[in-house]
């Protein structure tokens, strides 16, 4: 059963009482909150996720409201992971952004049985394309466009690699667009479901895009990687894709991982295997039509 | 003073067309080495050598003039590798 198959009242009750358990990629996340505006947003944006009430949850997270110390008439929200608070409190209107960051944090610090690359990941023709990049390079924006234009979304943030089998695991989560990207995507993809813009967050204004239903339905379908593309959005720049050396790709990929050093030799061997099995490129672009053309050409050549 | 490798046998080395990524289990770090640096480590792994011997060997291998500047550059690399724990100094009798 998926979220949009239950009435809002039941959804509200689950979040408020025992916690809503949903399958997000290979993990079950148990979410508790009584904050109604957040519940309303989750009902819309989590509508395609499978409910897993009877299964074990890897992560237990909560959004609770509390009085602001500075202003007792104002209420803030706080994120809790297994009862612990890794962040300070935030204004109530940022609840969704804080929940999403909190779940990302939980994955980034708790998951060490997989190699966690900091990378957008999509699938085409049975093969994964990795877009490893640090924040600010436009990978979430690019990933949003690709995942609604014929590519299957694995993640806009995490390249989850099973190092034994060299397989990537999908973890399709909400895609948080930032600042100018929000209007750009609204214009380019007017039919997608997007949450309300949340202003004044640590990353500016953020709006979350609901992942495509098909990507969530297929989130148990793992794939091997075939291409590694380091993307960079630069205004008014014609699209350009060029091959890079394996050694350069190795160092860039390893430095774009959350737990590469923690995995030690396992991480080193996994990255080496990955580089050997992929073609590696740098991509510079400014408009989506051109980059789609380049990527369709690349993925259809093989 | 001689230079020698430090736990060279434990390093995991990937050759990417004469550029190398090296995993060092002792530190958990990954290093990026060019061809000359790798030749230097391999040479030192055969036997300890002085700066002059290493410089002379590499100058021949890479068709360089074994002049003062070349030797200075090799010395800098050796001291850098020393801080990384890839090589260590040894003294006669030690």
From TrEMBL, chain A:
Keyword Transferase: yes
UniProt keyword terms in alphabetical order: Kinase, Transferase
GO molecular function annotation: kinase activity
Organism for this UniProt entry: Nitrosomonas marina
SUPFAM superfamilies from the UniProt entry: PEP carboxykinase-like
Species lineage: Bacteria, Pseudomonadati, Pseudomonadota, Betaproteobacteria, Nitrosomonadales
Protein name according to UniProt: Hpr(Ser) kinase/phosphatase
InterPro entries: HprK-rel_A, P-loop_NTPase
TrEMBL record, chain B:
Xref: InterPro entries: PqqD-rel_X (IPR027599)
Domain of life: Bacteria
Annotated protein name in UniProt: PqqD family protein, HPr-rel-A system
Originating organism: Nitrosomonas marina
């Amino acid at each position: 059963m998926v979220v949009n198959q239950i009435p809002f009242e039941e959804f509200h009750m689950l979040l408020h009482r025992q916690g809503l358990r949903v399958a997000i990629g290979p993990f079950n996340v148990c979410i508790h909150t009584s904050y109604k505006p957040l519940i309303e947003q989750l009902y819309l944006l989590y509508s395609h996720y499978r409910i897993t009430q009877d299964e074990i949850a890897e992560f237990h997270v909560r959004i609770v409201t509390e009085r602001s110390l500075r202003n007792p008439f104002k209420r803030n929200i706080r994120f809790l992971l297994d009862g612990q608070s890794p962040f300070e409190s935030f204004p109530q209107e940022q609840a969704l952004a804080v929940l999403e960051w909190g779940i990302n944090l939980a994955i980034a610090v708790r998951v060490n049985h997989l190699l966690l690359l900091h990378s957008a990941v999509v699938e085409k023709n049975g093969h994964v394309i990795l877009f490893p990049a640090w924040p600010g390079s436009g990978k979430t924006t690019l990933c949003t466009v690709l995942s609604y234009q014929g590519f299957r979304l694995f993640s806009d943030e995490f390249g989850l690699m099973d190092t034994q089998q060299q397989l990537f695991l999908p973890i399709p989560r909400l895609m948080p667009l930032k600042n100018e990207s929000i209007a750009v995507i609204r214009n380019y993809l007017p039919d997608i479901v997007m949450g309300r813009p949340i202003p004044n967050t640590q990353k500016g204004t953020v709006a979350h895009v609901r992942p495509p239903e098909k990507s969530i339905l297929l989130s148990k379908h793992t794939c091997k990687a075939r291409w590694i593309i380091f993307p960079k959005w630069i205004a008014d720049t014609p699209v350009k894709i060029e091959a890079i050396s394996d050694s350069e790709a190795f160092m860039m990929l390893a430095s774009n991982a959350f737990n590469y050093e923690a995995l030690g030799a396992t991480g080193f061997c996994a990255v080496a295997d990955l580089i050997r099995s992929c073609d590696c490129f740098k991509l510079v672009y400014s408009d989506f039509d051109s980059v789609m053309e380049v990527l369709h050409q690349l993925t259809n050549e093989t | 003073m001689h230079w020698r490798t430090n736990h060279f046998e434990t390093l995991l080395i990937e050759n990417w067309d004469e550029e190398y990524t090296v995993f060092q289990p002792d530190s958990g770090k990954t290093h990026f080495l060019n061809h000359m640096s790798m030749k230097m480590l391999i040479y030192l792994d055969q036997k300890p050598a002085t700066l002059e011997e290493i410089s002379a060997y590499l100058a021949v291998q890479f068709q360089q003039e074994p002049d003062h500047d070349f030797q200075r550059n090799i010395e800098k690399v050796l001291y850098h590798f020393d801080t990384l724990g890839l090589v260590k100094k040894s003294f006669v009798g030690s």
